[in-house]
Amino acid sequence: MACGVVKEPGVFAIENRERPVAAPAGWVLVDIAAMGVCGTDFHIFEGKHPFLDYPRVIGHELSGRVASDAKTFKKGELVVINPYLSCGTCRACLKGKPNCCSRIEVLGVHRDGGLCARIAVPEENLYPATDLTVLQAAMVEFLAIGAHAVRRGSPGPGDRVLVTGAGPIGIGTALFARLAGAEVHLLDLSQDRLEQARLKFGFEQTHLAGSEILIGDLKDGFDIIFDATGSAKAIEAGFPLLAHGSKYVLVSVVKDEISFSDPEFHKRESQIIGSRNATREDFETVMSAIRQGRIDSDALCSDIIPFSNFPNRFQELSENRDTLVKAVVLL
Asked: What is the pTM of this model?
């Protein structure tokens, strides 16, 4: 079968590998239908991912059809794949937090992913995609990251929220914060991204990084800030924007150390909250929102690319992310 492989930084190729015909006990074979292209895939291509060995079959935002009857699924049933493979025995798993398993393996990162015809995954990592299209199902995972972050921050009506970083994860976070009833603001370095957030998703309160934010009604700061930038500098710049009694939810991951003023942080009695991956609850929240029309999946999908064309488009997509929300590869 054809597999999309990043052989080394900057080198993507289609390789022919053996098609799996059997799965281990408790696992299921799934024929991949579509894959969302993620920032992680770009980082792998660019050689910027810290937890990766090359070569690697990329792809973790996946929809597919069950290839044979399983315990809880019928052959041909459309499913969303949760790409976070947990051990089930560590302290986090035993506390119901498999998303931050101490021995987690993520498809397309720690082990080969789903940019291929067929993959084997644990049956517990499959969720029925009833009433979703293959494109919608492939976009559930990245939205679940935002839904999980919002659940961690727990905004509600009357809360003033700032999402820093208006890329796909930031947009997903902003959408679910708005669904929770919060007043949502977006901050980004790119005016193009902010304009896209306004035109496609109706976010009118946007701020260009480097401009004055804490003026007028905003002078008291934000009740909850969600960082989705992947930038240590941006995270540090967010601390002065926190209101008293606030929360700072770090959705993105950076390799650097983060510093902040402890007296200012204590004066505000703020909380720093890490948000990693997503759980079944978050996936189900996203699927329900799409089914109910509360999330516009058409607005999210910037580009649909046949697998055969993807090698010619990968570099281009990587270089033009300011106007890209989500590209989806059809297999």
From this structure: 0.96
